[in-house]
Hints:
- With 679 residues, this protein is of the alpha/beta class.
- It contains 20 helices and 25 strands.
- It binds zinc ion (2 copies).
Amino acid sequence: MAEQNNNRPKAPASQTDAKGPRQPARRRKPASKQSEVRPAATAQQQAPKAQKAAAPAEAADRGGQRRRAGKKQGLAALTAAQKAAQAVASVASTAMTQAAKVAAETADPRQENPALRPRKAKGQKGKNDGPRLRVIPLGGLNEIGKNMTVLEYGDDIVVVDCGMTFPDDELLGVDLVIPDITYLIKNAHKVRGIVITHAHEDHIGAIPYVLRELNVPIYCTALTGGLIRLRLEEHRNIKKPKIQVRKAGDKFKLGVFEVEMIHVNHSVPDACAIAIKTPLGVVIMTGDFKIDTTPIDGKMIDLERFGQLGRQGVLMLMCDSTNAERPGIAMSERRVGESMAQHFKTDKRIIVATFASNVHRIQQIINIAHQAGRKVAVSGRSMDNILRVGTELGYITTPPNTMVELNDIKKYPAGKLVVITTGSQGETMSALYRMAFSGHRQVDVGPGDKILIAASPIPGNEKSVYSMINELFRRGAEVVYEKLADIHVSGHACQEEIKMILSLTKPKYYMPVHGEFRHLMVNAGLGRVCGVAPENIFIGDLGKVLEIDENSAEFTEAVPAGRVLVDGYGVGEVGNAVLKERRHLGEDGVIAAVAAVDVQNGTILSGPEIFTRGFIFVREAEELMEEMREVTRQALESCFDRKMTSRHNIREYVAARLSDHLRRKTKRDPVIVPVIIET
Ligand SMILES: [Zn+2]
Ligand SMILES: [Zn+2]
């Protein structure tokens, strides 16, 4: 999940870590197109970053004292950052000139399109005629969401993660987005299984859709398996899924690959990194991770295993980039509990909103409530589900006489209650949202409530989150959210943690994943700092195949990849044409012209009638409505004059005349639907 942590960005952020790569001229590999692009992109991207980090508002984003102190520092930093930005800009322009030079020297039109680039080997054969290891990201690159990575060697494919992403505003009416798995369907006979790192939506959300196409086993830890089963319950028409539960430390064979699960810390328990032993060496995918030295369940990330693998030799590391821009280390989840305990010291009823999947946080809330002598009720379907599954599987333990039914909360005084709820992202159907807008049956929010929102808005959700917070304040409630207190920490590794994993594993090749382009670029910088040779760092793209043989690695072809839109029960039915139409409807509205005609005798029997939606307000535009009726009548008559009998042609003609008229009169272009009824 995309989250933010509480580390204050320092300005200008880690110049050393993120500084531009070495000169690209030294690179000889065909993959050098990457290197040609890289310096310019890095430098350009660093300049705004330096400025942004230095903005006073950014520098002092938490707490009053910090805010005041930050302002001063912020101004000083601003000047420093401006200088830095200028320096970076000048480096950028030099780099760009040099990059352009290199590009010109090595220009080969075939290199423009990776698919056309000369390939050392046809098929998947390398110099030694053996198969090569193919690494194919199908999701999670240049985006945060829908993670999916494919490893292929000879006749075996293993897939890691199978996530979804929520649609952006552009995707009107689309429910969710999943990766394009055309390549996997084409090679279905090779797919040995899907290995899941952890139970977040961006890693498991596409499973119900992918299983319809690929009947393969899923390998994951117990909690992840429980949550996948919950998801699958919502979908019919899926054959009984083969979920194989494994635990951290387990190793198992999938074709030629040996897969190992390695325990990591994250904002959902039972998360794993995956180490895959291939004939060419070990590939480690960190999944989402952080290093928590004081985890709630006492199980720290298995750094030792990362170190062992590093000593034995790691071929490639693919590492979470979500927080690669953030210096330092992510705060421990325990910190949330400490901060929360302070907030519980009140006579008010406490309502806490957090991610349902954050089992450890829920456990902490229950424990603190118990210590404070408060009863706990939960609200929201996913919160109910997680409590049930988490308790069944032993990930949540509830002290006796602590949990109460939501229907019974009126029996307890406000100061003796905690309600744990969903809705930390301002989702319109969620429990907290309904509380805010008085649509919740059991919980009526008012001045007797203190509401803690223990999550930060995922980018894109800010507007709905803050409008919900405004509404809660309006009802007189006290609202505490991330900007005001340390009641949320990120589950993703910051720079020092990423560097720790890099230094422990010492990979030959490095591919930053799980991030937008800027995250990937900054993470690539961390790879260089930790000693990975610049030519061995690969910024991938969806569908772009990285082929590795005994001596080298290079991008070769591209396989189909991208996004598949899910709309209701339809998968992939909504394409660009439909989206364009929806936008068109949204922007210009729709006009229906309805008439009953006798084509044989060339007469209009009734109508034409004009109906509009989202185009004009009818009462104020009677004149225009009359014109449209007249245009339609004339159009129909000229069809009759020309002896047109095809209903299709008549409709087209009427639509064209109406469209011409409206464009002339209103400069607008609504969707026109002529309805010709023949009698
Ligand atoms: Zn994730
Ligand atoms: Zn995650």
